[in-house]
UniProtKB/TrEMBL annotation:
Span of the signal peptide: none
Organism this protein belongs to: Streptomyces colonosanans
TM stretches of this protein: 23-44, 50-66, 86-109, 121-141
Major location category of this protein: membrane
GO term, biological process aspect, one: polysaccharide biosynthetic process
Name used for this protein in its record: GtrA/DPMS transmembrane domain-containing protein
Domain of life the protein comes from: Bacteria
Ranges of residues in domain GtrA/DPMS transmembrane: 26-142
């Protein structure tokens, strides 16, 4: 019975291990990306309007996030670099709409909000979008058929 259980465990484990590894890398990359985007936004916000600061910080972080996910989270995938970044471009539009919407909505009610306060609104909305990014990247762009 123990032998059968070990075989069964060995059959299940590769998929479970791959998902666990993917989620672990996603969390590490996602947290780093959220912090980087928040800091870059806060820095840029001192010299530019919210929409421009968000666009620039999101653009930089999206490129870095996509490449980190391609190399670490979804390593072994046959998806080409350009294909991965083009697919992430669509996700960039979604991220930009959600994060800009959150900041603009906040500024509508707090017209004198500081860049730090805006950043506190931006970070959770970016974190939410990051979860959507991971799901789409895993299910569509880097699906098992590409690995």
């Amino acid at each position: 019975m123990r032998r059968l259980s070990a075989r069964h465990s060995a059959l299940i484990r590769p998929g479970r291990t791959a998902l666990t590894r993917d989620v672990l890398w996603f969390v590490v990359i996602g947290v780093a990306s959220t912090v980087a985007q928040a800091l870059l936004y806060w820095f840029l916000r001192h010299w530019s309007p919210p929409i421009l600061a968000n666009f620039a910080s999101l653009l930089v972080v999206t490129v870095l996030n996509t490449e980190a996910n391609r190399r670490l989270t979804f390593r072994g995938s046959t998806v080409r670099v350009l294909q991965a970044h083009l697919a992430a471009g669509g996700l960039f539009v979604l991220a930009y709409l959600v994060t800009s919407g959150a900041v603009l909505f906040f500024r509508h009610y707090r017209t004198t909000a500081s860049p730090a306060a805006e950043t506190l609104v931006l970070a959770p909305s970016f974190a939410l979008v990051t979860v959507v990014r991971f799901t789409v990247l895993r299910m569509v762009v880097f699906s098992r058929r590409h690995r």
